Amino acid sequence: MPRQEFEDRISKTVESLSDPKTYNVVCHEHRLGEPLPSIAKLRKVVNMIREILFPGYFGNTSLRPNTTRHYMGVYVDELHELLSEEILAGMCFECQDDNSVKIDKHKARAKETAACFIENLPEIRRKLVADVNATFINDPAARNLGEVIFCYPGIRAITNYRVAHKLLELEIPLIPRFISEMAHSETGIDIHPRAKIGENFTIDHGTGVVIGSTSIIGNNVKIYQGVTLGAKSFPLDDEGKPIKGILRHPVVEDNVVIYSGATILGRITIGEGSVIGGNVWVTRNIPPKSRIVQSRPKSTTFADGSGI
Amino acid sequence: MPRQEFEDRISKTVESLSDPKTYNVVCHEHRLGEPLPSIAKLRKVVNMIREILFPGYFGNTSLRPNTTRHYMGVYVDELHELLSEEILAGMCFECQDDNSVKIDKHKARAKETAACFIENLPEIRRKLVADVNATFINDPAARNLGEVIFCYPGIRAITNYRVAHKLLELEIPLIPRFISEMAHSETGIDIHPRAKIGENFTIDHGTGVVIGSTSIIGNNVKIYQGVTLGAKSFPLDDEGKPIKGILRHPVVEDNVVIYSGATILGRITIGEGSVIGGNVWVTRNIPPKSRIVQSRPKSTTFADGSGI
Amino acid sequence: MPRQEFEDRISKTVESLSDPKTYNVVCHEHRLGEPLPSIAKLRKVVNMIREILFPGYFGNTSLRPNTTRHYMGVYVDELHELLSEEILAGMCFECQDDNSVKIDKHKARAKETAACFIENLPEIRRKLVADVNATFINDPAARNLGEVIFCYPGIRAITNYRVAHKLLELEIPLIPRFISEMAHSETGIDIHPRAKIGENFTIDHGTGVVIGSTSIIGNNVKIYQGVTLGAKSFPLDDEGKPIKGILRHPVVEDNVVIYSGATILGRITIGEGSVIGGNVWVTRNIPPKSRIVQSRPKSTTFADGSGI
Amino acid sequence: MPRQEFEDRISKTVESLSDPKTYNVVCHEHRLGEPLPSIAKLRKVVNMIREILFPGYFGNTSLRPNTTRHYMGVYVDELHELLSEEILAGMCFECQDDNSVKIDKHKARAKETAACFIENLPEIRRKLVADVNATFINDPAARNLGEVIFCYPGIRAITNYRVAHKLLELEIPLIPRFISEMAHSETGIDIHPRAKIGENFTIDHGTGVVIGSTSIIGNNVKIYQGVTLGAKSFPLDDEGKPIKGILRHPVVEDNVVIYSGATILGRITIGEGSVIGGNVWVTRNIPPKSRIVQSRPKSTTFADGSGI
Amino acid sequence: MPRQEFEDRISKTVESLSDPKTYNVVCHEHRLGEPLPSIAKLRKVVNMIREILFPGYFGNTSLRPNTTRHYMGVYVDELHELLSEEILAGMCFECQDDNSVKIDKHKARAKETAACFIENLPEIRRKLVADVNATFINDPAARNLGEVIFCYPGIRAITNYRVAHKLLELEIPLIPRFISEMAHSETGIDIHPRAKIGENFTIDHGTGVVIGSTSIIGNNVKIYQGVTLGAKSFPLDDEGKPIKGILRHPVVEDNVVIYSGATILGRITIGEGSVIGGNVWVTRNIPPKSRIVQSRPKSTTFADGSGI
Amino acid sequence: MPRQEFEDRISKTVESLSDPKTYNVVCHEHRLGEPLPSIAKLRKVVNMIREILFPGYFGNTSLRPNTTRHYMGVYVDELHELLSEEILAGMCFECQDDNSVKIDKHKARAKETAACFIENLPEIRRKLVADVNATFINDPAARNLGEVIFCYPGIRAITNYRVAHKLLELEIPLIPRFISEMAHSETGIDIHPRAKIGENFTIDHGTGVVIGSTSIIGNNVKIYQGVTLGAKSFPLDDEGKPIKGILRHPVVEDNVVIYSGATILGRITIGEGSVIGGNVWVTRNIPPKSRIVQSRPKSTTFADGSGI
């Protein structure tokens, strides 16, 4: 390709890519002059929280009676600063108008909200301690609590969920969703931060788990990899858009176990103490203490190597 | 272990690992003196493309009428340089002979091909805008297009697919496959770059989705996590190797919805407007407007805690 | 929120988070003064091993007759140092008492064990060469061995497994589990390092695969994405904790193929040469040369757009 | 040292270091909640300016007729953002009171000032082109202008000076001083940003050069390493503090050459066209076209090796 | 150059470079298996100390009554760990024998010494506060103490000196010298850590200052750039090696000012209150309250441009 | 400043900065499509060379009889690749025409030259061992050779000089100068790579030393900080440009010592065994075994504090 032709083709493409008509739906103008949430900083936020919750596992905390308080003080201080900043970025991401009065209000609210979140850390730790214990008891292969905390993807995903859920309760936009997608990418476990999950929750292996936004899960529930708590079809409004806020995901009561690959759809209830076998398709209510398994597969023997 | 014994054992192992007989099948001699494709640089390539396609989301682009064109110009220029380099590395990866005439030809073709790819970016953006819209409309939990672009793994995977597919059409080796594996690792969604996918495509949650290389997908299709569009057994040649290029994956027509965990295998057709329920196993043609669901699981109630 | 109130609330939270009662179950005191295993260093260990096993793919090795031995010598030397350090960190992670006699013994054993592991690298390479060949032959879409080594998540997961399995045989705590979780996060494939896997093993696509700790897999086995080799319920001891060490995962004999999403639970045997179809739920022995498929789904045609 | 004693001694030291009486003179409370100037970002600012002024030398600018404007546009845009931020940090460093009205005014002024600085870049480039030419002509060892721009510490120091001087004229605190100290550290050349320096200025080698804050230097001046343009004693006020703003450094007229190590102190004038020899001590006016050299050293011959 | 010839020449060079005879004087075998002092970690040590001494200038310390103690506690804890490690590396650098009893003793002493050093930080801060004040009062161009702390190379060099001097008093090998060379490289100021320097010390500009190892400097001394406090010739022992430990550098009494470029050599005394002019060569005692200046240079006027 | 005005002013500045008339003298078009020499890579080159020459000091070399050869082999191999690349970049920096035949020739020559340089490393090591010994013997404060190698700026500067000098002898453009400027920035010692320097060379402290391009230095010479071996005026050609290549710097014969701050200018000879005192100005030949010192400064005593 001659030099001039190359330059012309590239220039034409730049023109086309710079034409507002082609990008105005999918471009992001940084609102109020504030930056986008930073993926790197949100990772740091989550890592700090993990170190605060499980001291000594994910940071450099040197735990001795004299030093623990210093480390907690510093981590909490740094967390407040970093989290306020990201909360603000999340607010500006969704905010429509652009004036400097608003930005001052946003800043104050971001700091306030970050402080509220921090006040909830002791309660989040209490719940996660219970989740770690439940996970340990549910897995004969686990050697000790330390291994569960340090290695298990289920704990990582539940940690992100409990953090994101609290941030969502504090009405922070975008950041909660991002934090759960972070765990989704790392573990394959996709828990919507709006879902409600009880205590002593175990996810084993976890890849492919989906827990939809209006799901409700009781206490002492255990689910395996590939389990979906999803929605069936959903009603559309007059413009053909889905109506928001309809309860469309399952309610899973206490003490339920769901084996790998089960797909449970719609606002149905899986009754207390039930066991749902793997790979089933469930779209109706299941009474308490039920045992549901896939109907028996067809089995034939064959002599040739022709496969399936 | 005494020092000398240690040295001897290590030395013996180094000998063994350096014996060409043990590695010559699985070593890579950098052909024509050019380096391997660089994983870090390919990540940068994909990130640049994402910023060009969705300006303002993944970079520092400061979008104002006066500046957009400058940013697009610079990004396109940098992309051309980096992509040419990686395309060349991909070519040399597969190239068998080693002479300097070839390398000059390769270099020219790499630059030409990178320019052709760049010319296709406006069209790729057009398609992705439609995919984003479809995803938004299909998910009641989505708050706005920005959240879909910034957080949704489905959009990330489809972006990598549309980029990799175009690179494959331009006959670039290795790089397309690597770009789709990059999305696979991040999202759990594995779309072969050779697959053909229509417009307004939605993948929800996505972990575990597999779309094989000869699949054809129509417009307005939505698939959920864990769906496989795969091959059954495939014929072998006389040496026992699989015959390449046989059409062995499904055709999914327009307006089909496939729920989580469905496994659809072989060169069959899922007819227009059909709905495939979760966890089914489908190996035969499905007529248009069909509804397929797993046969009802066995349900029993139990009083004891013996599980499944 | 007034400044003073803010300070008070934060201080109170720091108090609470520093209360040993709230964290003493889930904190990690660095035992014997040695650091935690380092995630970054373990990544480097695995990458070095990959470069030693497949020279020229994952590093800067410049392979020429005169240089290969130098590179192998240096890589092995660096690997020994880094791996000794991480093995020591793993030992201290689980060690309960804290005295300096112990630490010297641990150090000696860590170096010894790292050397033993290195002596096994030629054998690990031999097995992985066979796995790469099997994967190539099993996938019509693969263009050459290089693409399989460089891009395929199955090979990455099997490599980590074979490395972790050997480390576990050498009785190193924590590190093997961490190395398999590393592959789990990157590929969605979760192979417990204690599982026993034969030669010529293929995992295709792989996301969602789970292979439990007491599984036994023969030679020439191929499994697809989403396959679970798991446990059913397991017996508890008097304190309600699961009894460790019970054989509770399947035995898969030679030449078996298992399609995507199959869930196979309990200490059952899948007989030689069987083919297990996708999405089935199997909890009983399967005789050799069986073909198991899900019972046919219900199919209806519909005219309205009401979905499932 | 027993554990407890260690803890006590460390704790006591922490107490002492945390006692406000010991640090309140030398601590920095981040005023108005804004961060300190960032050393890393100021380095980036200076590097960006260098790339804008000398395109193609210090960055990735790919200079072609079609692309230069894009690169300049992007660099200027990025520079404006980064520089505004650092100017603001500099303002807050010196600002005494702490209220949010002020911070908004500061922000606006920082952006305005950054824009004014950018408007001066073409003029700064014009002057530096002349400095580069003068340096090239003055050094027989220089091979070409490119070498002078890329390698010569004199050009680096003069660039930082011309940038810092303009920022000081725009009344920005702290940042100009920091930028000249950056060059001082890299080159050993210490030019106060308040000094006034004419055109076609050459500093050769440069280590140890000091040019004080009220110095005035004409056109076509050349100075060598180790030259000081400094102050003698200076008057103190009633509190014993030096009186600020007194003219206390030399005036060097056009076409003067000053050889290495000359020390020139006080508000004296070195007349047009003079040559000052090395290592002299000058504290009085020098008429135009003078030639000043050190009085001849004492020379003896010696036979023994006793040295000096 | 043909391939084979190239390989042969390179191989031959590798042989030669690997011949112990050629490197055994200048190679470093890591003694006792411990690593070399790490340049990167020593930089971090010095930066931490600077942040502890001048809180809020060089780190992220967020200074509020509630948080200062936490930050000091954490910084001191981290400093103790890092410094112990580097002290140990310094000990092993000089240690000749290689047995594991020794290493345990070294470790204990390294930790002890690091704690002793930390106990001296309050006193080091007290002295540096005085140095900062003296520097501020001595420079009419300084705007405030903050600028002096943040920007002035003299303060940076004196800080490193006071730290290194204390470490040397604690008999730590190598590290003190390295810390002063770090300041030397950054500022051009070379103060031997063994020199003794009083209070209220000012170095202005500083490039080229050398203060030799047996120098003694009183209180309220000010020296300018390029000043040497050095040794003349020194006696050799019978093997022709310099005899260590002889007092061979100047004593500078209180309230002395030394202007730029003065060279003062040998164990002489510069009497209290003296002023030494620039560029002089002083090798004999100077009585108190002397004023020493270079003899007047020769001055001629010239009409031609022939230079010097 | 209103938004629109801001945009207009910035745009106008971008126009001006993009006007080729303003930058065409000082811009660098990457010739032949090859990149500029990379500052980061040249640092790595020099560091590799330092580790090869002084094994165990600046890298991770684990020196044991079995491993030294492997490390040397790998370092030499990596050095060859990196250095070839930078040599090529240096060639293209100065090359005027732009065609692809040339680039192939350049590449071949760059590889050849890098190999030649590597062949000289044993000889460079031999010379540096002698320099280290001389430096050690000349400094009573040095504790051992290790400290000299690890800490002394003189050795760092001489190492860069000996490397750069050899590269210049091999007629490589730009790179030698850059390598000496690297040492200049780090140590304040500016040795032109074209200077000729004998064996057993010592530079003590070194800040401010300048050794011009046509200087010749004999064996066993020692120079202190601030010494200049420079040029006086130099003849201009008809266009007023300095005539290149004239011998204009001093010849310093064997066994000479030059104290700090001496300025020695022009093509004069400092005779064998002479001692030049500090701060002298020497522009004429000095016979062998001379002792030159500054004439005695004027000394007065004063009672008032009026300074100088």
TrEMBL record, chains A, B, C, D, E, F:
It catalyses: L-serine + acetyl-CoA = O-acetyl-L-serine + CoA. It holds the Pfam family Hexapep. GO terms for biological process: amino acid biosynthetic process. It is an enzyme of class 2 (transferase). Gene3D superfamilies: Hexapeptide repeat proteins, serine acetyltransferase, domain 1. One of its GO terms (molecular function) is serine O-acetyltransferase activity. InterPro entries: Hexapep, LbH_SAT, Ser_AcTrfase_N_sf, Serine_acetyltransferase, Trimer_LpxA-like_sf. Its EC number is 2.3.1.30. Keywords: Acyltransferase, Amino-acid biosynthesis, Transferase. Belongs to the transferase hexapeptide repeat family. This is serine O-acetyltransferase. The lineage of its organism: Bacteria, Pseudomonadati, Bacteroidota, Bacteroidia, Marinilabiliales.
